[in-house]
């Protein structure tokens, strides 16, 4: 009999306020198990990176790799924040200094080869001879990966291939899945060979795991609020019991040095982002609910960047004013969202319905989590080349009333194409995303054009 211990994290999103505690707990637990002679693995399930934090943005995620190294991770897979918020070169160089395995079965180069830094699966053997296969999969954002120069395959089809490869080589199969709870449950039903699925992406919390079919599902929420621990009691190389639990990190006392470490990461990132981005003669204001400079300027910049007839966005995307010498850190501070420009084509009726929704007070005060938004509330909407007429019953684009039969090209933040905010936009077939630039890159471009305009 042996007990295999697996520690797992997911969806940290660069919330480093908890990271020193997580790292300490994992390192101490690993040391304890090793002293007891028990095998132990440590896996991250992706979205460790998030460019809202200056340390991650300043190092383009490479600092996150160093943190995983220091903690002693066995392997990690990637989430969409590693995969599609970095440029091709950014992801391709993210793991150059890794001391752990990167497992991602459904990501390929354009020529069909695998990235040099990644493997579809890895076989590990315990001291007792139990063979553990770990497979990695990430969410299927096919269009976005393609735009960034990658190819990504359907995760379930890819999983079937990898299961066929490892079935006869492994006694235990563990899946590192950045796919979400619903796909994890489907996989557990379809692939009973998998013993454990370590999940992420949908930020679900499974305090004591969940058995689906014969597979144990485990997941640790988001932002480092929990760290996960799976225990497999193994007899004759096969698990006879499977248990999962979560450690609530907020209930663990902080060591003084851990506060210093979290602050140090922030300050290091701030220093790395001191490069001058623009120069202003005066102040540009920002307000969520009142007319102000920066949201309107960003809206104008978005229209120009996308080559659209008109544009609109919510003022809550801008978190503060700017004045004087503007650094990369300043731009990150007021516009931290990993949100890209998007050009969408809507017919007149669709556009009018969307614009009517933007006038609703409830939407202005909506608190949004996810969709790439890293602010608090939506805020009022601002428009470029769009006028409200007849007390919101009608609208003008470029001085003319919207024609129901005409198509209009509209520049928007890409967050409007996800979730449930604007059904007409979500259903629109003609969308063009501009990547890898974020909204703050578009704002920087516009700020540097102000003096010449």
Distance between the termini: 75 Å
| CATH H-level superfamily title of the largest domain | Metallo-dependent phosphatases
Strand content: 25-35%
As laid out across the biggest beta sheet, the strand order is: 4-3-2-1-13-14
Tell me the number of strands: 24
Percent helix among the residues? 25-40%
- The total tally of domains equals 2
CATH topology annotation of the largest domain: Purple Acid Phosphatase, chain A, domain 2
Low-pLDDT regions: none
Largest sheet: 6 strands, mixed
The CATH class designation of the largest domain is Alpha Beta
CATH architectural grouping of the largest domain: 4-Layer Sandwich
Radius of gyration, in angstroms, nearest whole number = 24 Å
Form type: globular
The assigned structural class equals alpha/beta
Molecular structure report:
By secondary structure, the protein is of the alpha/beta class. The protein folds into 2 domains: about 1-270, Metallo-dependent phosphatases (Purple Acid Phosphatase, chain A, domain 2, 4-Layer Sandwich), CATH 3.60.21.10; about 275-450, Alpha-Beta Complex (5'-nucleotidase,  domain 2). Helices cover about 30% and strands about 30% of the residues. It contains 15 helices and 24 strands. The protein has helices at about 20-35, 55-60, 60-70, 80-85, 90-95, 140-145, 155-165, 180-190, 255-270, 295-305, 330-335, 350-360, 360-365, 425, 440-445, and strands spanning about 1-10, 40-45, 75, 100, 105-110, 120-125, 130-140, 150, 170-180, 195-200, 210, 215-220, 225-235, 240-250, 275-285, 310-315, 320-325, 340-345, 380-385, 385-390, 395, 400, 405-415, 430-435. A 6-stranded mixed β-sheet has the order 4-3-2-1-13-14, covered by helices on one side. The chain has a 6-stranded mixed β-sheet with strand order 6-7-9-10-12-11, covered by helices on one side. The chain has a 5-stranded mixed β-sheet with strand order 19-16-23-18-24. A hairpin with a 5-residue loop joins strand 6 (about 120-125) and strand 7. Helix 10 (about 295-305) packs across helix 15. The radius of gyration is 24 Å and the shape is globular. The mean pLDDT is about 95.
């Amino acid at each position: 009999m042996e007990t295999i211990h697996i520690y797992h994290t997911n969806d940290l999103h660069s919330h480093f306020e908890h990271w020193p505690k997580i790292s300490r707990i994992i390192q101490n637990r690993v040391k304890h198990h090793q002293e007891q002679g028990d095998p132990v693995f440590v896996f991250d399930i992706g979205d460790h990176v998030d460019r809202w934090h200056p340390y991650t943005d300043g190092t383009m995620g490479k600092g996150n790799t160093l943190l995983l190294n220091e903690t002693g991770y066995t392997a990690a897979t990637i989430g969409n924040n590693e995969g599609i918020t970095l440029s091709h070169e950014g992801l391709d160089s993210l793991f150059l200094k890794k001391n752990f395995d990167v497992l991602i079965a459904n990501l390929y180069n354009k020529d069909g080869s695998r990235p040099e830094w990644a493997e579809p699966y890895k076989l590990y053997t315990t001291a007792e001879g139990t063979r553990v296969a770990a497979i990695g999969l990430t969410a299927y954002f096919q269009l976005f990966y393609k735009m960034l120069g990658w190819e990504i395959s359907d995760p379930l089809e890819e999983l079937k291939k990898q299961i066929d490869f490892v079935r006869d080589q492994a006694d235990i199969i563990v899946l590192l899945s950045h796919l979400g709870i619903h796909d994890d449950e489907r996989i557990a039903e379809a692939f009973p060979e998998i013993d454990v699925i370590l999940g992420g992406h949908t930020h679900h919390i499974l305090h004591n795991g969940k058995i689906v079919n014969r597979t144990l599902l485990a997941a640790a929420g988001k932002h480092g609020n929990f760290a996960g621990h799976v225990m497999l009691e193994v007899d004759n190389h096969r698990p006879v019991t499977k248990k999962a639990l979560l450690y609530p990190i907020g209930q663990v006392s902080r060591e003084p040095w851990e506060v210093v470490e979290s602050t140090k990461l922030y300050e290091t990132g701030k220093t790395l982002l001191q490069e001058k981005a623009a120069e202003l003669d005066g102040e540009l204001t920002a307000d969520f609910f009142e007319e102000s400079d920066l949201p309107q300027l960003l809206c104008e910049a978005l229209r120009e960047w996308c080559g659209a007839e008109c544009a609109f966005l919510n003022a809550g995307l801008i978190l503060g004013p700017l004045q004087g010498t503007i650094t990369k850190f300043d731009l990150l501070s007021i516009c931290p969202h990993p949100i890209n420009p998007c050009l969408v084509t809507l017919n007149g009726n669709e556009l009018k319905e969307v614009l009517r929704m933007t006038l609703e007070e409830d939407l202005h005060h909506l608190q949004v989590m996810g969709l790439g938004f890293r602010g608090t509330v939506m805020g009022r909407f601002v428009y470029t080349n769009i006028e409200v007429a007849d007390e919101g019953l009608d609208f003008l684009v470029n001085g003319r009333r919207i024609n129901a039969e005409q198509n209009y090209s509209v520049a928007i933040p890409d967050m409007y194409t996800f979730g449930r905010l604007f059904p007409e936009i979500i259903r629109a077939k003609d969308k063009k995303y501009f990547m890898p630039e974020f909204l703050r890159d578009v704002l920087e471009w516009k700020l540097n054009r102000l003096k010449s305009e």
